[in-house]
Write a structure and sequence with these properties.
CATH architecture: Alpha-Beta Barrel
Bound molecules: adenine, zinc ion
Number of helices: 16
Distance between the termini: 12 Å
Order of helices and strands: EHHHHEHHEHEHEHEHEHHEHHHH
Helix content: 40-55%
Largest sheet: 8 strands, parallel
CATH class: Alpha Beta
Length: 329
Amino acid sequence: MAAALPFCELHLHIEGTLEPPTIFALAAEQGRALPYAAPEELAARYEFANLPSFLELYYENMGVLRSEHDFAVLADAYFARAHRAGVAHVELFVDPQAHSERGVTERTVLRGLQRAIDDAGARFGISAGIIACVLRDRPVDEAERMLDAVLAAAGETGAPLLGIGLDSAELGFPPHRFAGVFDRAAEAGLHRVAHAGEEGPADYVREALDTLGAERIDHGIRVLEDPELVARLVRERIPLTVCPLSNVRLRVVDRIEELPFRELLDAGLLVTVNSDDPAYFGGYLDDNLAAVQGAFGLADDELSRLARNSVEASFAPEARKRELLGRLP
Ligand code: ADE
Ligand code: ZN
């Protein structure tokens, strides 16, 4: 069963784990009113036409994240749920620009996450790191400032900053604009990943590789439109972090069976399964694995292959990777 295999979750927006009851609990602690009478009324709005329509609510809801405590509460709840899902290692995304614009500093964000990461290690044996994402639909100079601020905050706090990522609205926002920011991040020793080929074309995937030096592609399901690009990803062992329930809920496909999941696997790509924004998309990692198992009839050895891929695709230290691989059949 999925839960017995050690999975690495490599595409998880921590703000996308903000469940409606937690939004209400944090707002109540802060003495703030919400424009909804109850969590159920908010949850009823979780019907999305596309990525931008989801992002609007996602950015609005994260307004309840204001203090170190709030970020720790958020991430504690995620780690408890991820443990039940069989997650052994997480590389979580965070969107610092969406918080700094509300006056919440990068230090506050990283400290809160660091507290939860330390607790998850002690309570569940889960290892974790942080990937700070550039909001691609915002100006480049803002991304430059975010990079400086997270590097400084990680230096001061010792928070486990692993990498830089690229997210938010994709169509019309090609990766190359952020080449300079990603260059500087690499010089500072950070890993580089990028969302590409979710709603945007396969060309954005090539650009993410060529101009940002992306080591992993988040989503990437549209690469199949470009066989030459597929051959390159296979040759260079560039992983794809696929998020099946997200693709359905954001209407990239109408039904999960329409995802080219088998085609991606059969092409020899290093496919991993992840949950993206589980509070919004109907499920955590175990739910995503169950969904692809159901839709594509994955055999046990194919499920083990997905777990193995997730370990290989992770930025975990080599000793940790060996330990996790040792737990696979
Ligand atoms: N931010 C949070 N979730 C995202 C997604 N699925 N794509 C792009 N940006 C995001
Ligand atoms: Zn994502």
